[in-house]
Specification:
Elements lengths: L2 H4 L2 H38 L4 H13 L3 H11 L9 H26 L3 H9 L4 H31 L11 H9 L6 H30 L1
């Protein structure tokens, strides 16, 4: 093991560049998957004939596929039908599709957790179904969804490491490049990489815990 040479500024800067790509891909995927997941969850909750079933089919299909397969599909299969994505765009697309399916279940569970009596009372007071959903159900459900959503976003950030298979220049990819220079760098670089992942994910976990404490 060679900690001194492994932790040169050049190597640390290279890892930080990879961490930057990891965070960039994660943030974009989080925003997109949150929007898509909320829409899918609401559609499934409302039980719209036809549309709800299609959303359920999509969600259940994606949830039962490995993320690695979806990454391969977006990068290698889509170009075969004329949709060519850059490495970064393919990673974002795969993560968004996969996480949207997961988030939709969080949203649907959150909406279903609201007491039906409140919905009936709102409807009987003259509110339409959409108004009831907007003013009564969603505000309460969103508060309950926040902690599990933060946990899901932590998983998403860790899952970006799978994009190393399509050579996305994220943290694990850059760590592997440094490790390839000298076998003595492997343990020091992997330890530093683990610290970087831990620092980001632990910060998000603290946010989740604080939000849970507020709701208790």
């Amino acid at each position: 093991m060679n900690f001194i040479d492994a932790y040169s500024w050049e190597h640390i800067r290279f890892l930080l560049m990879g961490l930057g790509i990891t965070l960039k891909v994660s943030i974009v995927a989080i925003v997109l998957s949150f929007i898509a997941g909320c829409l899918l969850g609401i559609v499934r909750y409302t039980k719209l004939i036809g549309v709800s079933q299609l959303a359920a089919l999509f969600v259940e299909t994606i949830r039962n596929l490995p993320l690695l397969l979806i990454i391969f599909f977006t990068y290698f299969a889509l170009p075969e039908i004329g949709v060519k994505l850059s490495v970064e765009s393919a990673a974002i697309a795969a993560l968004t599709v996969f996480e949207a399916a997961m988030i939709s279940e969080i949203v649907r569970s959150g909406l279903n957790s609201i007491d039906k009596g409140q919905i009936e009372a709102a409807r009987s007071s003259g509110l339409t179904y959409i108004q009831t959903l907007r003013y009564i159900v969603l505000p309460q459900a969103l508060r309950r969804m926040v902690p599990p959503m933060v946990s899901q976003f932590i998983s998403l950030l860790k899952d970006t490491s799978l994009a190393v298979v399509i050579s996305l220049a994220e943290l694990m990819h850059n760590a592997q490049i440094i490790n390839g220079q000298d076998a003595n760098f492997v343990i020091p670089i992997l330890l530093l990489t683990a610290v970087m992942y831990f620092a980001v994910n632990y910060s998000l976990s603290l946010v989740a815990r604080r939000l849970e404490a507020r709701q208790a």
